[in-house]
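## tool: complex_structure
## caller: assistant
## args:
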Amino acid sequence: MSDTADSLQGLRQRLAEFAAARDWDQFHSPKNLSMALIAEAAELIEHFQWLSEAQSQSLPPDKINKVRLELADILIYLIRIADKLGVDLAQAAWEKIEMNEQRYPANKVRGDARRASEYD
Amino acid sequence: MSDTADSLQGLRQRLAEFAAARDWDQFHSPKNLSMALIAEAAELIEHFQWLSEAQSQSLPPDKINKVRLELADILIYLIRIADKLGVDLAQAAWEKIEMNEQRYPANKVRGDARRASEYD
Amino acid sequence: MSDTADSLQGLRQRLAEFAAARDWDQFHSPKNLSMALIAEAAELIEHFQWLSEAQSQSLPPDKINKVRLELADILIYLIRIADKLGVDLAQAAWEKIEMNEQRYPANKVRGDARRASEYD
Amino acid sequence: MSDTADSLQGLRQRLAEFAAARDWDQFHSPKNLSMALIAEAAELIEHFQWLSEAQSQSLPPDKINKVRLELADILIYLIRIADKLGVDLAQAAWEKIEMNEQRYPANKVRGDARRASEYD
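## result:
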């Protein structure tokens, strides 16, 4: 994949045009978009709710493809909200990873996700 | 921002290393990660639930910064799930945008988000 | 409605029988049920995401009926989780209301939902 | 517990008074309440996201108590939304259970939660 195709800025630009062409910016308040985003996150949840963890790790191909498009929907709304709020999403993620690096020192939380969530 | 910093692949790689260093892959089943993702999406919701749409569009700077880090958390878990399932997130998003382009023709859904959601 | 029909215990008993008749208790871990519950909560969200607050307050009858059944789904899963965990849901709600009474004194938070959420 | 204490109508009435005393009805549009509800559902999710299903079935007492109050929060917002929309929650649940009884015949879906969700 070219650098452009993998870039969040490229998607941000494309999605802004998509909304503008449909005059949908009027609906795309951060409040509304946060609702659309969580609704998509829940469609992801639905794929996994009755599966065991092991089953969720080895989905059949047709299911993978459905899940893949749910992940796309989440990313799409996430990029839209960030754009509406003037947030650089990739920059924010890199910054948050640095914060997590400090907050969850590898030697203290190794093998214990619950300990990590207690720090939250 | 350099192309690398804005790239989803760069973040994917960094997050895989982060989890490996903590031996957290054992907790990172798609099922569990979908739960972590929706929990982060809900933290975003909490920022907006008592605000009007207009207020959600003009957040004060300290609030923007908090929201920014929630958006980062969502992206982080989204990238992790995609990685665990072997999904190329950017490619999926581009494909979904093409599907949406067909599904919601600009001249049919202009100015009507509800009509769009009826097609879902 | 009779006292029984309005009672949470009556629903709890009915739902336990429903699951037992289908041998579904094996899927009804609190973890899985929490996922099913949030998926239903998201279906509720979807009805409102592109509406204004005012529109959400005056839904047309066919929409009310759909929303009504989403609310039922949420209650059903909520009762199931409480049952599985041995929690008396009504008792917990009364207790939480007492806690909220202390936490959000009427004279301090009147007319300000945001102040309330800051206390959370 | 007395019939009244276990009744949804009793809680509905109490919660309406609670909101009125704080002048919070202005914030309690169905749209906003659906956001508050899903945020509480996500707090439930957070308790379970890194636990195995088995662990979620045998929570330690201090954790049960926290989860218990999350369940209460969900019920509280659920009752509020129903009240705002003029929906009788218990009646809706009984009706939905009858629908599910038809939709998921015990002899067809026994032991198979995934089959059930395919019918959704």
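## assistant note: The mean pLDDT of chain D is 92. The helical segments of chain D are 8-21, 30-48, 53-57, 61-85, 89-103, 106-109, 113-119. Handing back to user.
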